[in-house]
């Protein structure tokens, strides 16, 4: 049975962060297992979907039976490895790979002109080192962090939302893989945290212009948790933190993307993959407050 923690448990420092639900999951659980969702006929595009959290998310959507997964990644080697692995485990799945950077706006437009996409997962990210002796400047922050995490991400979402739908009744979903650093002040993350906060806020603005009711668009900000990926290993060691199950944000993303109208009440909101889905569903009335579960000033 997957462990869950209460407020009294001190094993995880993230439990000290206020949250709207009692139950805090650290591993995937049956309620959001991809086996419960039907992805037949769906196309999912995952940026940085060949490694780490992005690959785990792509795999979860494949488990849910989506028809096609497109992966955007800069490295050809990891792209081919991811495609081979997915194709082996899911023979009926069509896997399309694009060797590209999301900073290449022209290429992103070409991709969305070629594909009719139902779900976009923004997993690509860039950052500076979090070590205290790292030299930083405005130019360094712009090049290492802001260009990808804010500007390129904005352009990609804007391009996707302006692209034609596959049919009049089809929907579009964007899942932004953000970070708890967007809401917390964590030493060493001055550029990374501010970039994540900025784009999470942009997603909130997009959610004012689009909605499930008006044009079939659903937009979510999702903190994946403390996941020990190869990317995280460049800054932290395996024993530095009580790391969490990579399947948890992957399965939560599948729930957001494929559960139909069930998750729509979280449109435009900021959430953690560790928060229990059924307890979140009990908070629907709270969403009448437009500021609830958003990035902003708390008074």
UniProtKB/TrEMBL annotation:
User: What does the UniProt keyword field contain?
Assistant: Oxidoreductase
- Among its keywords, does the record have Cytoplasm? no
Tell me the InterPro entries matching this sequence.
NAD(P)-bd_dom_sf, SDR_fam
Q: Which residues form a coiled coil?
A: none
GO molecular function per UniProt: oxidoreductase activity
Superkingdom, taxonomy of origin: Eukaryota
User: Which SUPFAM superfamilies did the record assign?
Assistant: NAD(P)-binding Rossmann-fold domains
Question: Gene3D superfamilies annotated for this entry?
Answer: NAD(P)-binding Rossmann-like Domain
PANTHER family the record matches: ALCOHOL DEHYDROGENASE (PTHR42901:SF1)
User: Family, per the entry?
Assistant: Belongs to the short-chain dehydrogenases/reductases (SDR) family.
Would you tell me the protein name for this molecule? NAD(P)-binding protein
């Amino acid at each position: 049975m997957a462990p869950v923690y209460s407020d009294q448990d001190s094993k995880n420092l993230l439990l000290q962060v206020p949250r709207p639900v009692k139950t805090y999951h650290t591993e995937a659980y049956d309620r959001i297992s991809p086996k419960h969702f039907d992805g037949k006929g769906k196309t999912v595009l995952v940026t940085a979907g060949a490694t780490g959290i992005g690959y785990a998310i792509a795999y979860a959507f494949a488990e849910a039976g989506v028809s096609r997964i497109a992966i955007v990644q800069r490295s050809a080697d990891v792209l081919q490895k991811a495609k081979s692995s997915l194709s082996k485990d899911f023979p009926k799945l069509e896997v399309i790979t694009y060797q590209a950077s999301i900073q290449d706006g022209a290429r992103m437009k070409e991709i969305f002109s070629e594909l009719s996409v139902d779900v976009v997962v923004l997993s690509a990210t860039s950052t500076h080192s979090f070590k205290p002796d790292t030299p930083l400047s405005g130019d360094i922050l712009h090049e290492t962090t802001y260009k990808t995490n804010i500007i390129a991400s904005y352009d990609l979402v804007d391009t996707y939302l302006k692209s034609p739908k596959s049919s009049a009744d089809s929907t579009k979903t964007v899942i932004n893989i953000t970070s708890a650093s967007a809401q917390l002040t964590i030493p060493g993350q001055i550029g990374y945290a501010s970039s994540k906060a900025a784009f999470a806020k942009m997603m909130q603005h997009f959610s004012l212009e689009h909605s499930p009711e008006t044009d079939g668009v659903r937009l979510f900000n999702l903190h994946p948790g403390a996941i020990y990926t190869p990317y995280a290993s460049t800054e932290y060691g395996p024993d530095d933190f009580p790391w969490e199950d990579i399947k948890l944000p992957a399965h939560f993303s599948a729930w957001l993307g494929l559960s139909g109208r069930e998750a729509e009440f979280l449109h435009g909101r900021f959430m953690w993959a560790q928060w229990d889905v059924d307890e979140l569903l009990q908070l629907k009335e709270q969403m009448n407050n437009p500021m609830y579960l958003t990035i902003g000033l708390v008074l």
